[in-house]
Amino acid sequence: MTQTQKNFVKGAAILGAAGLIVKIIGVFFRIPLTNIIGTEGLGYYQLAYPIYTLFVTISTAGLPAAISKLISERVAKGDYAGAHYTFQVARRLFVALGIIMAVLMFILSPMIAELQKTAPAVYSLMAISPALFFISVLSAYRGYFQGLQYMVPTAVSQLVEQFGKLTVGLILAYALVSITGRPELGAMGALIGVAIEEAAALVYIMAVYRKKKGEILSKAAGLDPRGASREWKPILKRVLKFAIPVTLGACVMPIVMALDSVIVSRVLQDIGYAQKTATAMYGVLTGVVNPLINLPAVLSLALAMSLVPAISQSQSEGDGREVKGKSSFGLKLAVLVGLPATTGFLILGQPIIQMLYHNVQGSELVMATGLLQLLATGVLFLTLLQTMTGVLQGLGKPMLPVYSLIVGAVVKVVVTITLMRIPQVGIYGAAVGTIACYAVAAVMNIVFVVRGTGFRLDFMGHIGKPVFATAVMGACACLVYFLIGATSNTAGVLLSVFAGLVVYILTLLFTKGLTREELKLVPGGGKIEKIMIRIKAWK
């Protein structure tokens, strides 16, 4: 492996690890937030966040990658002056975009809140709008450092964002709710925290840039700063040419989630719910239940990230057999993650919510449990969707998952509106729409992978053994919770999850649900293989 390849792998590992930590923190952030501002306050928070995410995606999705690409090309030629000039042009673009997007969201906040039929949401929408400026400029610096193959500033800035949210956001939310007693202002405080954390991350990465700037420019000493590459218009044109298609693909789900924030709230009020009740219901769905459903997705996302370089390498070497094997293993891993997660949520749905969310009680607890158990059936589709996306990206077909998501998104909107207008279905229609989206997109991705690689489904390997191991796990978890849960709900949940996980892994190993070759692809798999041989479970 060359030094360049080593740097790439190391950088990918740093960003991957930081990304996973960020995802995990993001999931768990909403637990204390819900306990502070309640489900109504969480509803206001969740109504603003998808709109913010859409604006962020429009302004930053493809641009950092474009900057990174252009800068890495300059660095590869030894043109450090050109690389730095490219960054300066891009930074001006990002500053302008950040100002435009922040002002636009602030001005449109009253209209968006009116579309959502939730006037108090305007505080949350306005509070988070300044963050668009900070994250836009921050993205320019991230693209610059990534182009230099220096990933640490990007990773650390992501962690600064999340820890800032955990501290400043929660403190402000608690202070405003305690002082005013108004949940919408508590949500506003949490979102002011988002703006502050983005500013803090920007300050950090600018400090790193100032420190590294001299070192980088010293490499450009003696070079002509007025070379052909110093025209800003061609640079801007190349940046936009690369970024726009990426941005369009990245906008699919943010657009759907932004539409959801309007559709769900409006339809609930149209079928007879009061504004505050509708907001609380939306908060339960998107702030209480969805973070739990997304937990297994953190693991499947990590698997997808690891599959991209593995399959890409086999593809570049022309090893079709390896491509088939790794693609097949990706499908199996998605099932191995998704099935037990689905079963766990179905069995322990209510105890898990009671353990984590102290403020969710009575009818809200019943609704949250029903939504969690319903959405649990979509976890398998979500893990399949993410893992097969990684396979397709590794195969060099990144647009196919985008097409799948577009079709899934259209299905979601149609199903959500149709079912939610039935009063007896209500909020559960939104959950069914989400499941339909994941199912359609996952099936399409699987079809694309099968056609692209030619691997065949092994019923026992892909379905039979995982289902058997999951059934044994479920029985074990039920028994443990039955014995302990009546005494302590928290102890019952934790011990049943732990016992179920251990039994699940052991059942998979003893039934050879994972082969030796597959186990070697899993971190720590070699050690597990040695243990199984030592205890004579394997020959």
UniProtKB/TrEMBL annotation:
Q: Tell me where it mainly resides.
A: membrane
Q: How does it sit in the membrane?
A: Multi-pass membrane protein
Q: Which residues cross the membrane?
A: 12-31, 51-72, 93-113, 119-141, 162-181, 187-209, 239-259, 333-353, 365-388, 400-420, 426-450, 462-484, 490-510
What GO CC terms are in its UniProt record? plasma membrane
Annotated Pfam families: Polysacc_synt
Look up the domain of life of the source: Bacteria
Keyword Transmembrane set for record: yes
Recite the UniProt keywords alphabetically.
Cell membrane, Membrane, Transmembrane, Transmembrane helix
Cell membrane as a keyword of this entry, yes or no, is yes
Compartments (UniProt record): Cell membrane
Please give the name of this protein: Stage V sporulation protein B
